[in-house]
Amino acid sequence: MESLPRALLEEIIKRITRLTDLNSLSLVSKMFYTVESENRYSMCVGCGLYPAKLAMASLCSRFPNLCKVEINYSGWTAENGLQLDNQGLSVLATCCLSLTDLTLSLCSNINDSGLCSLAHYKKLTCLKFNTVPGISSAGLFTVAVGCKSLSALCLVGLEKVANVNWLEYLGSKGSLEELVVVACKGISQYDLLKFGPGWMKLQKFEFDEVKGRYEIEQPHDPSHMAQYQYKYDFCCESLKVLTLAQIVNLPEIGLRFFLSKCKSLEKLCLHYVVGIYDSDMITLSHSCSNLRSLSLQLTPLFIGGLQARDCRTPLTDDSLKALALSCPMLETVELTFFACEPMYPSEISFTQNGVLMLIQSCPIRDLILTGANFFNDEGMKALSSAQYLETLELMDCVAITDTGMRFLAHTPRLINLTLRQCHGFSDHAVAEVAHARNLESLIVEE
């Protein structure tokens, strides 16, 4: 192979995705070693860095064209030696001049001082910080000011971030296209509204407070005045992916303003959001005709007065009907019902007819149902005529029996089937479906 033109050899190396294969290839000859090193554009390291600073310098020297680097200390113990610190991060910043994408996960020895070295990266476009306890608002502001090309920022588990001056700065520049904030205690949904003009360019937004589903505090928006109509005037028509998880919107609007303004929205995830109503979903469906993917994770909430308390999930078939009528491109649907007991069917406000109406009206290719105890053999019979359905995942759907499972043998396009904790049907019925459909993928978990 050494007689191959260098350009052809580089193309071959680009098509090799397994790290072990690349490492083996580099041992074949000096030329292969050189070409492979020059064409290695991504790297993930962590506990194997020892001593960390010298190992990082060596790796940067061997792979001079690295564009994407992840430093992940998952599973780290003291026996692995000292973690990479601020000086080691400075080595990375000095040696990897082509770096555009950096992820730091569980790096306990890196703090705001280390982020100063990143501020000199003019090419850096993507930054992800996952549980880096030393990072605070000051470090994020340094990055916001220095990294002029930053277009994606992901923050997970940063407990020392107490203000959002960095977010206001990024919003004023309007350069971010992706923003993810998960489990950052010092950042509320109302702080995020200070992003202001930045919403105009943003294409992906995820916010998850990660609080207990039954321990969610009522929010407070200091700008809210009850005697005036409450609204936000931000333009977010570029937003394509939106995830809101475990937030409360009662009695104030908060981040619900997205649902009436995201005309380009293609993927929506609403996970255990308190304060979402059918009226919101109807507004959404009218605004988002390009919606392709929908994920709803719902849990029963107490509704009613003290004398007659009721407990049920917040959305009804009216939401599904609106989506069926106004979202003709919807092809992926996930419906998850948490803590809904089969002995209390009224806890789930969706009905089987509502779900089937959505499936029959939209070109649903992927369907995931979890805890849908209302979905039974009649529903499976209707699925057997779903002309677009290719992937079906059922978890804890207790009302489905062998009779319902056998209907899937007649589903026209079904090629992927996943069954988890569904004890109402037998292995024999599943085997019949697998043989009849010639499935590409079959996963069964007890």
TrEMBL record:
Signal peptide: none annotated. It comes from the Eukaryota. InterPro entries: Leu-rich_rpt, Leu-rich_rpt_Cys-con_subtyp, LRR_dom_sf. It holds the Pfam family LRR_6. This is F-box domain-containing protein. It comes from Urochloa decumbens.
